[in-house]
Amino acid sequence: MIALIAFTRRGCLLGERLAEELGGRLWTTDRLAPETGLPACGKLQDWAEGRFADSEALVFVSAAGIAVRAIAPFVKDKFYDPAVVSVDEAGRFAVPLLSGHVGGANDLARRVAVITGGQAAVSTATDVNGLFAVDQWAREQDLVLCGRAAAKAVSAALLEGKPVGVRSVWPISGTMPQGLGAEMAETGICIGPTTAERPFAQTLHLVPGAVTLGIGCRRGTTQAVLEAALEEFLDRAAIPAEAVRGLATIDLKRDEPGLLALAQAHDWPITFFTAQELAAEMGDFPPSAFVEKTTGVDNVCQRAAQRAGGHIVIPKTVCQGVTFAAAMGPVHLSWEK
Question: In angstroms, rounded to a whole number, what is the distance separating the alpha carbons of residues 181 and 185?
Answer without folding.
Answer: 9
